[in-house]
Amino acid sequence: MRLIQFIEKETSKPYKQILLIVAIAGIANSLLLGIVNHATQAVADNENLTQYFWLYMVAFALFLYAQWFAFERAIITIEDAIYNVRIRLTRKIQQVELPFMEEQGSNSLYARFTQSDMLISQAIPQITGAAQMSVLLIFSFLYLAYISFPSFLISMAGILVSAALFLAKTKHIKALLQEVKQKETSYFKSISHLINGFKEVKINRKKGQAILQNIATESAEIEKIKLEVGKQESRLWGHGRILVYTLLPVLIFVIPSISEIQTDNIYKISSTILFITGPIAILINIMPVLNRVNLSIDELVSLEAEMDQVISKAFSRPNDDDEKEEECSNLIFSDFKEISMKNVSFTYPTDSSSDLKNRSDFTAGPFNETIYKGELLFIIGGNGSGKSTYLKLLTGLYYPENNNLFVDSIAIDKTSYPAYRDLFSAIFTDFHLFDKFYGIENIDSEKVNYWLKKMKMQDKVEYQNGGFTRTSLSTGQRKRLAFIATILEDKPILVMDEFAADQDPQFRQYFYEKLLPEIKAMGKTVVAVTHDDHYFHVADRLLKMEEGRMVNRI
Fold first, then answer.
1. Running DSSP on this structure, what letter comes out for residue 501?
2. pTM of this prediction?
3. For residue 405, which phi and psi values (nearest 5 degrees)?
4. What is the CATH number of domain 2-8+16-169+236-314?
5. What is the CATH number of domain 328-553?
6. Which of 241, 323, 330, 430 qualifies as a cystine partner to 319, CB 3.0-4.6 A?
7. pLDDT score recorded for residue 67
């Protein structure tokens, strides 16, 4: 069973103990049937019922305790497994490289990461109950064999035929659910267009109507498949009922006519069949849940396999995580004199989802540039010239096609990239403003307030509980807060991609003529992509790009 394999792999907690307790709960529940049947016979024979009463209470107490214990331990075990998966996958997210993240897309990756483990967690109580019902059915049929072996044989024949039918239909339902999953991926992508492109949609009715039409079409396709799934699942439920209510007349009307069965046993047979009606219904209803759980586990396994492949490729060989961390920790950069590139290039793969994905032949470089400590460097050029690609190469977010990247005289390879990246703090065009100053220890509130004042944000935001009190601001204001966070990181190199593009003219002038020189005076190296030709004179050097290459150095 897929779930058992998942638990065995992801947790060290003793799940076999849970199976034992589930079995005890099922046995205790089936004992109740036998006790009730024999107590009924005792009433007819005017026997003393005291012993049956106490047997019933003991079996009932055992059933309740075993059921409660099994549910509790099952939840603890599965949540431990999910915790281990979450921690491992989040660590691997940090280990994968930017091209993988760009290809996946934030919405798709978030959905794959969160929805699967949530469904597994929610399904555990139902699955545990169904496991108990399975044990109950086994012992109920053994009890039926004790009462009437011919009835047992007929019942088992019916169960085997129904099981074969269930397995065939379950396979078909699983295929339909897989199709729903693929359709929903496209549906969620359309929803993300509607939300993330809200401004564009709002001012372009035709665009909005086209997106809504696409969403409606995808929703209709999903609805059609889900309706088919619902029909198939309802038929499973119906076949279960047919099995039970076909067995009843056969065992009660047919078997007595061809086999000698005592009248008392006919009552016991009928009560047994009626007793197992509920467990059969539970087992049938759990089939769709198991299908979804199996798909969720497969999704987590698939996601991790994709990340493992990317990580192994990045390190050129399939080392385990500990070995990678040990390799990466051998080198530490706290400062530098110069960073140089020698014939460094990067070509976008054909399946890349980056900004230049439609230009699969686009190659940035070769670059033969040197960044010097303490300089203020501007990178200029038209849109699509490769400036952002150069920044990603410079900061180590993209691996170049060769390893000709040097810090002073030290060559940087893939194992030393984590240490190399520690030289940089950056504000990219698609920056993310975090809710707290993660990774910064011993934050000085006075220093934060100083920079809030320097960035003209003291009247809008305050520093509190390790972060800013407010982040729902304009893009330009949020960039200013991101700037404060990067300054507090106190890295040697500050990289900015079109930082001033969203600022008002007054602050833009202040940024170039006052703020950047102050940052340089602090000993920082500043590398900034800009289009503001009015302020080119502020820079120590200018590098101009066209079609992925440096064409001018000033």
1. G
2. 0.67
3. -120, 130
4. 1.20.1560.10
5. 3.40.50.300
6. 323
7. 82
